[in-house]
Amino acid sequence: MIVTIENQNFQAIIDSVGAQLIHLYEKQEDFDYIWNNESWNKHAPVLFPAIGRSNQDKYLLNNKEYKMPQHGFIANQEFKIITHTKNTVTFAVSENTETYKLYPFAFNLMITFVLLSSGLSISFSVKNNTTIQMPFSLGSHPAFNVPLDGKGKFDDYFLEFDGDFQLPLESYEIIKNPVPYRTGKAEFFSENKKIKLSYKLFEKGLRIISNSNVKKVKLFSVYSDHFVIINLEDFANICLWTKETENIAFVCIEPFNGLPDVIGNPVDWNKKESGYKLAPGKTKTMKYEISLK
User: Which domain holds residue 96?
Assistant: First the structure.
């Protein structure tokens, strides 16, 4: 089901499959901030309960091996609509027989979208309905059109980082081929908080910033009056990505609570270095905001 919410400034359109944001329109000037093109047929998928690739697409739990697809399985799940008003919508999904084969936990995931006068707030609530500790990661993968409003080119845009962190900016070193994994090391990314976009910036693939106190990322250009600011709030990591080998006109700015595996053998999930370990019956909430102009 396709759901629309709107206010005076913006309109958001969300697919109940994966609770995926597929359009985010600026109404006055009539343009879409979110990527829509078959050259990458996604828009803003939710990543749960895993982020990135698990070694051999598997993990261990209590000495048992389970399969886990890249970025988990939630993007293909049909969510139920819990509440829907003019400017808000809440979706929910729980485990089923298929998810249980991959992830042996009873859970509930609720995602709420709220349109604000300044942009869009997205909040997530994960509840552990089992009687044992439940490990999980959660992320969001929005792809923004670059240029934002048709003005300028990809390399006319900048990313600017804000927060109480020390320069230089570093990112986790990635082994790109045959699939992207971390090496467990960090590498130099930028000596400045403001970075010019280029496809060369992504020649090593995705860039996960390892400076954990980054709190905001701004996408902007002198050629446009419009911008996007990702306010991380409750998210520890930020990932940047585009299809670097194809020069496609989008950039993903992705809040992560969790990380891809360090390359090697399948990992015991309870020993992974990032993400959450949720106690029985407990709920974890987190949100981020997309500020727009």
Answer: 2-292
